[in-house]
Each structure stands twice: as C-alpha cells, then as structure tokens.
Design a protein that fits this description.
The chain has 177 residues and is α/β, with parallel strands linked by helices. It has one domain: Rossmann fold (3-Layer(aba) Sandwich). The strands form two sheets. The protein has a seven-stranded mixed β-sheet, sandwiched between helices. Strands 1-2 form a two-stranded antiparallel ribbon. The structure holds adenosine monophosphate. The site of adenosine monophosphate has 19 residues, from strand 2, strand 7 and helix 5.
Length: 177
C-alpha cells in the first residue's frame, strides 16, 4: 500500500461526531481506524518508520486513546511504554502538570521513576488540538529527567495552532485537518 492509499484509508476511518462531548466540539472518533487492522497497523508502522528503530528508549502514551497507539508503537520499536495519566490514577509518587484543553482543563501525571536519566522519549496521542496536552506531557518527561525526542499523533487539527505552541518539538502528524 502506498503512503497516499494509507492516508486515504486512515482518513476514511476517522468519524467526526458533532457536539461531543459538549456543544460546539467536532469530536474526531478514531475507533473505526483502530478496528481496521490495515489502517491501525499502517498508522503504527508509519510512526515507527518516521522516527526510525533504535532512536527511542520509551514511548509515553497519553490517557486514554494515546495508550492504545503508544503501546503498539513501543512494541514495534522494541522500546518500553510509559503511561501519562490523568490526576489521581497512578499509584506511586508522581510529577504533575496542569493545562488547558480545547474543552476544559485537566492535570496529567507521570511516575517520578518512569524514566532513566536522559532516556529518549517519544510522546504519542490520538489528536493534537491546542497543544496543551502534549505541552504538559513534555514538561512532565523533562521534569522526570528524560529527553523528549518527538511527538507523534494520528490527527492534527491545524486551525487550533498546537504545533506553534510546541515550537522546539518534532511534531509528526499522520493526518491533518
Ligand atoms: P489539546 O490539549 O487541545 O491539544 O487536546 C488534545 C487532547 O484532547 C487529546 O488527548 C485528544 O484526545 C483530545 N481532543 C481534543 N480535541 C479533540 C477532538 N476534536 N476530537 C477528539 N479528541 C480531541
């Protein structure tokens, strides 16, 4: 399958749901993409080949949809997986960072011992919108003593300007809207 065919397939497997989870939000539902084994495997392969095997020590997935993609990417890289979770979910000692969402406000946490010093970390999430979520995850990884090698998302909502807020980061989006 060519890259263009894969883009078209993935795009056809993203469902837009109006007014979810609140009025005015056009929610990008990736469950059809995850359910299509060709689209899901193609997305994971494209992320791994963009960065290159051997360049990443840990893949950090952002709760909750980011976990699904990040775990598959980590396996494919031969890297470890680290969950970046919403407040109060991780059992051991954490660092936390608060941020603004396209809809609402939230806090993310990571275990303080999640990374070895200077490990190269790839951040993975489903959607990049305003960039607040990824920005908070970057600060958590850095606070925990590791380096952010880049960030991959399935979808980027370009009108919300997230990429501009993450100026020093290699932001890799499989699909842009
Ligand atoms: P942001 O912090 O604004 O970049 O928002 C990104 C986070 O919110 C990601 O974890 C997404 O899962 C979620 N998100 C934001 N906007 C949308 C949207 N329109 N459709 C689906 N998920 C979204």
């Amino acid at each position: 399958m060519t890259r263009l065919d894969l883009d078209e397939l993935m795009r056809s497997r993203v469902r837009e749901v109006a007014d979810f989870p609140e009025p005015g939000v056009r929610f990008k539902d990736i469950t059809p993409l995850l359910a299509d084994h060709v689209a899901f495997a193609g997305a994971v392969d494209a992320i791994v080949s963009h960065h290159g095997r051997g360049t990443i020590d840990k893949v950090a997935g952002i709760e909750a949809r980011g976990f699904i993609v990040a775990a598959a990417v980590a396996y494919h890289f031969g890297a470890g997986f680290v969950p970046v979770r919403k407040a109060g979910k991780l059992p051991s000692t954490t660092y936390s960072a608060s941020y603004h969402l396209e809809y609402g406000e939230a806090t993310l946490e990571v275990h303080q011992d999640a990374f070895a010093p200077d490990e190269r970390v790839l951040l993975v999430d489903d959607v990049l919108a305003t960039g607040g979520t990824v920005g908070a995850a970057v600060s958590l990884v850095e606070t925990a003593g590791a380096q952010v090698a880049g960030c991959s998302v399935l979808l980027e909502l370009t009108a919300l300007g997230g990429r501009n807020r993450l100026a020093n980061l290699d932001v890799h989006a499989l699909l842009t809207y």
